[in-house]
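in:
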């Protein structure tokens, strides 16, 4: 198997780690939203926005320190800003679906809320996965590419340097004494 299968394996590994962090965030999201729905008088979508924000915080920590820990860390402020911006779009996707279900169709039972929450999280997750890996947690150059480039430069450098002339053994001549 060539490099293509190695890239596919890395992508599968990345998806698995993204999914593990996402699963934890989903548990947090469902837990907080259901607690708020049943223990407070907050409107359903507002409670869900709060739950989504809490889950976004949990997910950032998981993505930065688990899923994408090997990615570029040089611009944390920019990374966090992009993460929050793309997370906000995901929040709008997730909560927009819930809003449409409740206020557009009148589907407001606890079961219906949770079903549409799953749909919203699913669509938001697809967007988040693409945006986080593309824009937020940028890939560092592959180790193989760096090693190839270094060896290429060393070879080019060696070819550019003239080789020293070998020392030739010359017969020693006697000096004349006058």
């Amino acid at each position: 198997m060539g490099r293509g299968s190695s890239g596919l394996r890395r992508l599968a590994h990345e998806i698995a780690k993204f999914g593990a962090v996402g699963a934890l965030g989903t548990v947090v999201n469902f837990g907080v939203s259901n607690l708020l729905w049943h223990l407070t008088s907050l409107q359903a979508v507002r409670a869900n926005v709060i739950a989504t924000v809490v889950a976004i915080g949990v997910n950032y920590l998981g993505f930065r320190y688990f899923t994408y820990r090997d990615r570029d860390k040089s611009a944390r402020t920019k990374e966090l800003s992009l993460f929050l911006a793309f997370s906000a779009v995901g929040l709008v996707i997730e909560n927009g679906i819930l809003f449409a279900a409740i206020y557009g169709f009148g589907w407001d039972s606890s079961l219906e809320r949770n079903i549409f929450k799953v749909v919203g999280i699913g669509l938001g997750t697809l967007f988040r996965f693409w945006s986080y890996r593309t824009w937020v947690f940028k890939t560092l150059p592959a180790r193989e590419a760096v090693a190839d480039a270094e060896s290429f430069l060393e070879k080019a450098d060696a070819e550019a340097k003239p080789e020293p002339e070998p020392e030739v053994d010359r017969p020693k001549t006697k000096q004349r004494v006058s």
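note: Helices lie at 3-39, 44-67, 76-105, 110-136, 143-160.
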